[in-house]
């Protein structure tokens, strides 16, 4: 390819000035002298041309291929119905067709999933930009999108695309798709225990019946089933049953032939908060350990403590008038009959049956436990006497009965095998060594355990800490009154705060301290499973994916009582885990994935942008499961007005090339320029001389 190039020998400004002066002088010469003036103008032009230094440039060009970008949508919505098969067939056909034109086109493919770039939704245009980042815009022949049309990063104008070429969308799916889903409108995150929280939701559907059956579960237990009208918001009250996470599961029945059941279920976790934990502490007599219990309970701002100490039992009558004693009468009727159900925990600390409480009140306490209350007995020597509360109507709900012995000898509390697996005593600080790295206790009340679990043992391997589930409630027994020795640092002390706080929270049904529990959380593309159990082999965990498929995951042992596993999460959405009667839920990805919010294939979202580039949007299959039928691919010159037709789509042929070599031949440089200049001067001299001779007769003679 030949072209003319100029490389001035003087600065451009100087050359411009010389050219202007030469033009003025040449024009003046022509006007005043006629034909000789033309010769002078040509001479001046040769001078300007020589200063401009013209050259002939020959370029050796090699044509290059135009680039076609193919972005394939592999998001969650693309797995619904026949879309995955349609996508695979379309991509295979495009590879074959674009490969057949490999002399003119280079095809680049990119696959996009939901979390490409760490965002929510399908981001095809971010992937398209990355795919073409190293390509000059003039080499881009076009872009093909294989998608269901559910795209969440569509640019607002063609200028943001970064190229001037047609964009074509090949849309999977079919018209007339059906689906039903639950839309949460208001979902509370916290609630007061014992009160109702209201969830506002709506069942949305396309191609449905107008009514749906909604099933409501809390912590895996069925609460109710109701029929609701679709498309209408409604309120659903849920009672917060306990402190900690209350997992509410909402599930609506599916439609025949709907796209997916993954969005027919919604789960929300409402954190149960107690207004105040009301604890009743009754100390049978003043003693050194009383302050330990009081300090522990008063240190928690969420605990409302009612504490009574029996300073003057009935048998100590000395005739002093009651109005002269600075004592408060023990309000037995108010505490154990009228308001007993208001307490979350009742603690008897070294309390003996001193005829203060009649038997009917012990019956009330036993009933309180069986109906869901919590009772803790911290026993001292009085528990081994005839005045033991184990000999009252409270005895049947206690996990241990006294054998009449009180062992007064130093010993170190030991965590039993059962205790090593129980959350209350597992991994207590200091228990990792043998003997434990904590101080000694000096007293143990002898007892035999008929029911319940022994978590710690003391002198002569006798039970020290025993727990029992009784009906709906819980009972704990600490068969020593020397926990205060740890608090005072006797013989280096011990973990009294950890032990007593865990014990109290287990009695008040803290979910984190349950003996049998299944927990799960999402970590990247994995689900981390933890199973707390008192058994040696909990069995596999059944994991149900968002699309309804199930698989079993085998657990491996870690710490005593804890089994773990890591399962890959191949889909975004809500997973349900089950182990026996236990259930857990974990959401992988955003809580409300955009891919499952709008699952219908769409040809309208991409149409404005595609048509602005003179491209097209079309479905590639007909019917509910029709075979893929791609339009013809055609190269169209860059000046073409159309890039799509009824059965074809066009790609822009740019004719781009790269320069492999350049040769330059100067035209007005060196001897050639000098010869032209001297020749012009000589012609001017001859013409001028001849003209003077013709005008002067004397000179002619």
- Give the helix/strand class: alpha/beta
What Rg, in angstroms, do the CA atoms define? 46 Å
Unreliable spans are none
Strand content: 25-35%
Q: Give the helix proportion (percent range).
A: 10-25%
Mean pLDDT, to the nearest integer, reads 86
Number of helices: 14
Outline:
elongated
Secondary structure tally: strands:
36
**How many angstroms separate the termini?**
59 Å
What does this structure look like?
- The protein has 701 residues and is α/β, with parallel strands linked by helices.
- Helices cover 22% and strands 34% of the residues.
- The protein contains 14 helices and 36 strands.
- The strands form 9 sheets. Strands 16-15-17-18-24-23-22-20 form an 8-stranded mixed sheet, with helices on both faces. A 5-stranded parallel sheet has the order 4-3-5-6-33, sandwiched between helices. The protein has a 5-stranded mixed sheet with strand order 8-14-13-10-11, with no helix packed on it.
- β15 (277-283), α5 (290-298) and β16 (303-309) form a beta-alpha-beta unit.
- α1 runs antiparallel to α2 and α6 (332-338) runs parallel beside α7 (359-370).
- The longest helix is centred in the last third of the chain and has 25 residues, at 671-695.
- The two termini are 59 Å apart.
- The mean pLDDT is 86.
């Amino acid at each position: 390819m030949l072209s003319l190039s100029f490389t001035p020998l003087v600065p451009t400004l100087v050359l411009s000035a010389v050219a202007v002066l030469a033009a003025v002088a040449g024009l003046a010469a022509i006007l005043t002298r006629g034909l000789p003036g033309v010769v002078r103008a040509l001479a001046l032009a040769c001078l300007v041309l020589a200063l401009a230094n013209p050259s002939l440039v020959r370029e050796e060009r090699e044509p290059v291929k135009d680039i076609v970008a193919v972005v394939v949508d592999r998001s969650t919505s693309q797995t619904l119905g026949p879309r995955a098969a349609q996508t695979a067939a379309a991509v295979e056909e495009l590879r074959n067709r674009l490969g057949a034109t490999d002399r003119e086109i280079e095809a680049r493919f990119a696959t996009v999933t939901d979390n490409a770039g760490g965002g929510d939704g399908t981001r095809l245009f971010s992937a398209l930009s990355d795919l073409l980042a190293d390509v000059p815009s003039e080499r881009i022949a076009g872009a093909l999108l294989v998608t269901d049309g559910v795209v969440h990063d569509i640019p607002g104008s063609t200028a943001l695309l970064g190229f001037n070429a047609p964009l074509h969308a090949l849309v999977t799916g079919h018209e007339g798709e059906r689906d039903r889903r639950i839309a949460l409108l208001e979902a509370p995150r916290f609630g007061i225990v014992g009160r109702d929280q209201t969830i506002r939701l709506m069942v949305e559907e396309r191609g449905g019946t107008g009514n749906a059956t909604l099933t409501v579960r809390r912590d895996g237990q069925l609460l109710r089933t109701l029929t609701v009208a679709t498309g209408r918001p409604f309120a659903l009250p849920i009672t917060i049953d306990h402190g900690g996470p209350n997992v509410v599961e909402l599930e609506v029945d599916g439609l025949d032939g709907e796209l997916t059941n993954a969005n027919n279920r919604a789960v929300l976790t409402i954190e149960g908060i107690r207004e105040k934990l009301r604890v009743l502490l009754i100390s049978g007599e003043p003693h050194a350990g009383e302050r330990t219990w009081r300090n522990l309970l008063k240190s928690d701002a969420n605990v409302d403590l009612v504490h009574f100490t029996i300073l003057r039992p009935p048998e100590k009558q000395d005739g002093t008038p009651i109005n002269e004693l600075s004592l408060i009468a023990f309000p037995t009727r108010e505490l154990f009959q009228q308001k007993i159900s208001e307490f979350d925990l009742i603690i008897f600390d070294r309390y003996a049956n001193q005829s203060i409480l009649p038997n009917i009140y012990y019956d009330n306490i036993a009933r309180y436990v069986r109906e869901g209350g919590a009772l803790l007995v911290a026993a001292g020597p009085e528990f081994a006497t005839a005045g033991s509360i184990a000999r009252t109507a409270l005895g049947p709900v206690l996990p241990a009965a006294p054998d009449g012995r009180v062992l007064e000898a130093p010993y170190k509390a030991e965590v039993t095998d059962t205790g090593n697996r129980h959350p209350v005593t597992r991994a207590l600080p200091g228990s990792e060594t043998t003997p434990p790295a904590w101080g000694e206790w000096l007293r143990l009340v002898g007892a035999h355990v008929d029911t319940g679990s022994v978590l710690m043992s003391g002198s002569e391997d006798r039970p020290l800490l025993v727990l029992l589930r009784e009906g709906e409630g819980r009972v704990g027994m600490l068969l020593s009154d020397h926990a205060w020795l740890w608090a005072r640092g006797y013989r280096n002390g011990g973990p009294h705060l950890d032990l007593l706080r865990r014990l109290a929270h287990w009695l008040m049904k803290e979910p984190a301290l349950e003996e049998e529990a299944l927990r799960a959380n999402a970590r990247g593309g994995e689900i981390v499973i933890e199973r707390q159990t008192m058994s040696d082999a909990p069995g596999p965990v059944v994991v149900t994916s968002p699309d309804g498929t199930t698989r079993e995951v085998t657990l491996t042992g870690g710490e005593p009582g804890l089994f773990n596993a890591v399962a890959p999460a191949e889909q975004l959405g809500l997973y349900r885990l089950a182990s026996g009667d236990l259930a857990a839920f974990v959401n992988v990805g955003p809580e409300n994935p955009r891919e499952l919010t709008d699952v219908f294939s769409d040809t309208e979202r991409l149409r404005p942008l595609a048509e602005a580039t003179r491209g097209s949007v079309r479905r590639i299959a007909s019917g509910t499961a029709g075979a893929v039928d791609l339009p013809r691919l055609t190269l169209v010159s860059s000046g073409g007005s159309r890039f799509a037709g009824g059965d074809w789509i066009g790609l822009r042929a740019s004719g781009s090339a790269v320069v492999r070599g350049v040769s330059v031949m100067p035209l007005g440089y060196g001897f050639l320029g000098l010869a032209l200049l001297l020749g012009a001067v000589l012609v001017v001299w001859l013409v001028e001389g001849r003209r003077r001779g013709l005008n002067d007769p004397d000179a002619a003679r």
